[in-house]
Amino acid sequence: MAIIVLKNALGFAATCRKAGCAELRNILSDIRFEGPRPRTEAPTAAEIVAARRTAHEIGHGPAAFAYALQFEDSMRQWDVVGKWVPLDDKKPSLILDGMSKWVGAMWSQIDEHMILRYTAAKTAFTSGAKVVLDLKEYPMVMEELAKVPEAQRRGPLIINSRTGLPYRSWYFGDVWRKVRKLTGIRREVWNRDMRAGGVTEGREAAAPTDDLAKTAGHANKRTTARVYDRDRRPDVSRACGSLIAERTQAKHDVS
Do β-strands 115-119 and 100-103 pair in parallel, antiparallel, or remain unpaired? Predict the structure, then answer.
């Protein structure tokens, strides 16, 4: 990521005719840097159930609701919890706190039929892929919804019960680390792995990649398969089955 930012900065500087920037950009373009290893962690449904229980026990019921949405609906953390941005950010918002404002999912995006509609923040300015989810199809989500009184279903979808405002990203992360430790979930599991956990569970249940891609808001289903499906056992099983079948056929041919 640092190299990408540096290359972009050098590209801008080169257009401004800053000395040496074009040459350095060209040098960097010829160098291949090792990228980060792909994530392999994918929390299970049982772990999410336990994490939700723990979140309620420590007074963070809204975080439990967020976990259910991230896992079962395969939503990004940002799309669920929202994000605090500077006041001069172009995105409109009525949720203000000091010198920042909040943008994110609102209760108004869930209609009377429990249909959630949203456009993922990551694709809002690219593919613009819209996601439509029938929350009635997701047991964990409905369990959490049942715990939210009708009178409280307004404003931001996920709030910090202790402040009445949406979570700050750093604090939401702190809550997850505490929940993870108390629940006994491996420290290698990040909160953002919940999205991959939901996709992986879907593939294990033989759900079509096309459907999982739509749920996750992916314009390209290859992203769903390569990045978020973290179970490789079915592929191995198919490969082994093919090899065994070939060996059996070869044995019969020899006979």
Answer: unpaired
